[in-house]
TrEMBL record:
Similarity field: Belongs to the flavin oxidoreductase frp family.
Protein name as it appears in the record: Nitroreductase
Keywords, in A-Z order: Flavoprotein, FMN, NADP, Oxidoreductase
Domain Nitroreductase positions: 9-163
Gene3D superfamilies: NADH Oxidase
Organism the protein comes from: Halomonas korlensis
InterPro entries assigned: Flavin_OxRdtase_Frp, Nitroreductase, Nitroreductase-like
Keyword NADP: yes
Top-rank taxon: Bacteria
PANTHER family: OXYGEN-INSENSITIVE NADPH NITROREDUCTASE
GO molecular function (one): oxidoreductase activity
Length: 243
């Protein structure tokens, strides 16, 4: 297995960072690596906000659910789906631009995720740790206001970057047999049940017996309530009307 594949399989979320700073040129190289990701029709429908103001970082940490490592990491980025730039560029050529289509929301969101994952892999190749912050969607309007995001731009997630101050274990993933299906969609319950046993053993080891749970049980809070029900109204107000 080559070193790139090994690196990609070794990802873990890092939430404790040293005081060591990331050189500015390295940060720029990480963003350039992000730009190398695949992008739908070369639209490049993303922008990245590098949040350096300590007060803003503290505010975002609270808005994201009290995640203090947003304030303590070396650098914090907010990855935004951006349909403002490409639609306005098209409009300047004389095109009669149609905005608010669901496909535009999907393109911008997927472009942003692909770009961010390239940044994450590049960062880890340089010995950095990263942690995605989906919690910024807890209060997306407040964060949009704080970052002065214009219409047709929305914050998808944040990312903490820094040199790790701890060495967390790699969390087991689902068996590849559950994910890769040949020719048609096949039932994967037996693989999920086996994975639940794997995760239960993992938590027992990692938490010193203090956590007795499975993957399926951990999903319950995500699906037995309406998770972030404000997102649809927020996206419509942002100009992503999902027409």
């Amino acid at each position: 297995m080559n070193h790139v594949i090994e690196l990609m399989k070794s990802h873990r979320s890092v939430r404790k960072f040293s005081d060591r700073q990331i050189p500015r040129e390295l940060l720029l190289e990480l963003i350039r690596a992000g730009q190398g990701a695949a992008t739908s029709s070369h639209v490049q429908a993303y922008s990245v906000i590098h949040v350096t103001d300590p007060a803003n970082r503290e505010t975002i940490a609270e808005l994201a659910g009290g995640q203090g490592y947003i304030a303590s990491c070396a650098d914090f980025l907010v990855f935004c789906a951006d349909m403002k730039r490409p639609t306005e560029a098209s409009e300047r050529t004389g095109a009669n631009v149609v905005r608010g289509m669901t496909e535009q929301l999907l393109v911008a969101s997927v472009d942003t995720a692909l770009m961010a994952q390239n940044v994450a892999t590049a960062a880890e190749s340089e010995g950095l740790g990263i942690c995605y912050i989906g919690g910024i969607r807890n209060n997306p309007q407040a964060i949009s206001d704080l970052l002065r995001l214009p219409k047709h731009v929305y914050p998808v997630f944040g990312m903490c970057l820094g040199y790790p101050a701890h060495d967390p274990d790699v969390k087991p993933r689902l068996p590849v047999e559950a994910i890769l299906k040949e020719d048609y969609y096949a039932d994967d319950r037996e693989h999920v049940e086996a994975y639940d046993a794997t995760m239960q053993a993992y938590y027992q080891t990692r938490k010193g017996g203090l956590k007795d749970s499975t993957w399926s049980q951990n999903l319950a809070p995500l699906f037995d309530t309406k998770l972030r029900p404000h997102m649809r109204e927020f996206l419509v107000k942002r100009g992503f009307e999902m027409k």
